[in-house]
UniProtKB/TrEMBL annotation:
Keywords: DNA-binding, Nucleus, Transcription, Transcription regulation. It comes from Corchorus capsularis. One of its GO terms (cellular component) is nucleus. One of its GO terms (molecular function) is DNA binding. This is TF-B3 domain-containing protein. SUPFAM superfamilies: DNA-binding pseudobarrel domain. Its main location: nucleus. It is found in: Nucleus. Residues 1-86 form the TF-B3 domain.
């Protein structure tokens, strides 16, 4: 699961954590709760805060969301960022993506 390789590690055997993420488009800060199930399905799941983000961006099926880690310019460590893009469709065909 290299797409989640940059996520922080769960500590002390826990399966959930709070994750602060900066919106790369607006600069707003978002707080998400991230957890993994306690079985063999280890892909992270976003819960608390996720629906608010989706609604605020008016995201729909086919839109894109990118999570990434970026080093701070002042050298104070890494910051997690999120970038949402809306699918641009003409007659139901995706021609590209625009900032959400």
């Amino acid at each position: 699961m290299k797409c989640f390789a940059s996520f922080p590690r769960f500590k002390d055997g826990r399966n959930a954590m709070e994750l602060q993420v900066k919106d790369a488009n607006s600069g707003s800060l978002w707080q998400f709760r991230v957890f993994v199930r306690k079985n063999n399905y280890l892909k992270p799941v976003f819960s608390k805060g996720w629906c608010n983000f989706v609604q605020s961006k008016n995201l729909k099926v086919g839109d894109k969301v990118k999570f990434y880690k970026e080093e701070d310019d002042q050298g104070s460590g890494a910051q997690f960022k999120i970038k949402a893009k809306k699918a641009v469709k003409i007659f139901g065909v995706v021609f590209g993506y625009a900032k959400a």
